[in-house]
Amino acid sequence: MPTIHQLRGLEILDSRGRPTVQATCTLASGARATVSVPSGASTGAAEALELRDRDPARYRGLGCRRAVGHINGPIHDALAGRAFADQAALDQALIALDGTPNKARLGANAVLAVSLAFARAVAAERNVPLYQHFADILAGTPNAALRSLPRPTINLFSGGKHAGGQVPIQDVLVVAASAQSMDEALAMTAAVFMAAADLIRDRYAMRTLTADEGGLAPPFAGAQAMLDDAVAAIRAAGYLPGHEVALAIDVAASHFYHDGRYHLDGDALTPAQMIERIRGWLDTYPIVSVEDGLAEDDWAHWPALRAAIGGRALVLGDDLLCTNPARIRRAIHEHAADALLLKVNQIGTLSEAAEACRLARAAGWRVTVSARSGETEDDWLADLAVGWAGDQIKVGSVTQSERLAKYNRLLAIEAETGLPLVAWPAPE
Ligand code: 2PG
Ligand code: MG
């Protein structure tokens, strides 16, 4: 049984230059692993609490010394010398030690770093690849079968909180629908990205300056211009929109929803009008996935959104669900969505994220495994997406090393396993 010898935390910097948490777990066997955790900007209100120092004199209050102190102090003190039968036992101990519903005492950043570092150390102790260990954790058995590689949904254009809010829609993503392999999906997406960069230079007289997740972020006139330009880039790269390359969008609607209205492109839309707007986009553009088409607290209208677009595009919940099993249960019950955006730091332990994944699967939902806008060079997310058989992976653009670390790891896993790319979306 894996026995924890030592836990150590370190404050490091993420891709935005903001502090985040790294943890190293050493087991009694000598196996040792280090993990870094990401951080969001367009966060859901129901996410577990990311503990920040709130000292305005240092990193504008965003320091993580308290979270790191919790790893080196109370978490190490409580867990060192103890043996844990499995990941669930370790995570239970962390949840009990924290004692709050949202990890507010120790910090979800501290708790998740330990949860993941333990997983990676145990994988090393078992001498199995991390993706296999993740698969075994989800299945609850060793040597669980691996199914497929996730199809990447790759950031092309950015807006919202990741790009200074020049346009309300947060992401327009490229889906290499006809790609047969990860290698092909990345090459196709890179071709679209380069075509888009040329188009942006000509149309907006802009260099290829990129947003938080590496997407292009010119001053689009509105959502429609963003989507028109994406389709133009697909064509310019020589692909047939919809058939070879499709689009996914993260509307991130929570961030422009106030007083019951969606403030989009100069309009103040009612929820019904917002749903119609999205349906109109689906009629015009090859969109196969719509994330957060409505706001996180607009529960009353999500079922109507699903009824309007379900079957044509995924109705993907991010802020709505926050990888939170209770919220996912409610969404399943109310037919509010049909796909889960899974971000482990929204909930704070691997075991709770696994429960979220199992719930979604049992309801017949698709699962998109997602990075955060503030990432690190760590690549564990690629292993998680393969181990948990994510249908999609969302990591950001094909630029910037904190994004490419995950794509490069997916290429290595593809070469190692020969797994096929998941069949989605269905060929037209
Ligand atoms: C999202 C994520 C990733 P953030 O909204 O889906 O794109 O953003 O990490 O800022 O929450
Ligand atoms: Mg989102």
Number of contiguous helices: 12
Question: Topology as H/E string?
Answer: EEEHHHHEEHHEEEEHEHEHEHEHEH
Distance between the termini: 50 Å
How many strand units? 14
Q: Provide the structure class.
A: alpha/beta
Shape: globular
The whole-number mean of residue pLDDT values reads 97
Rg to the nearest angstrom?
Answer: 21 Å
Overall number of structural domains:
2
Could you give a quick summary of the protein structure above?
This protein is an alpha/beta fold and 428 residues long. It has helices at 65-79, 87-98, 108-126, 130-139, 182-204, 223-236, 271-284, 302-309, 325-334, 350-362, 380-387, 401-417, and strands at residues 4-13, 19-27, 32-36, 151-158, 171-176, 245-250, 257-258, 261-264, 267-269, 287-291, 314-317, 339-342, 366-370, 392-396. Strand 7 and strand 8 form a beta hairpin.
Topology, element by element:
Layout: E1 4-13, E2 19-27, E3 32-36, H1 65-79, H2 87-98, H3 108-126, H4 130-139, E4 151-158, E5 171-176, H5 182-204, H6 223-236, E6 245-250, E7 257-258, E8 261-264, E9 267-269, H7 271-284, E10 287-291, H8 302-309, E11 314-317, H9 325-334, E12 339-342, H10 350-362, E13 366-370, H11 380-387, E14 392-396, H12 401-417
Parallel strand pairs: 4-14, 6-10, 10-11, 11-12, 12-13, 13-14
Antiparallel strand pairs: 1-2, 2-3, 4-5, 5-6, 7-8, 8-9
Helix pairs in contact: 1-3, 2-3, 3-4, 4-11, 5-6, 7-8, 9-10, 11-12
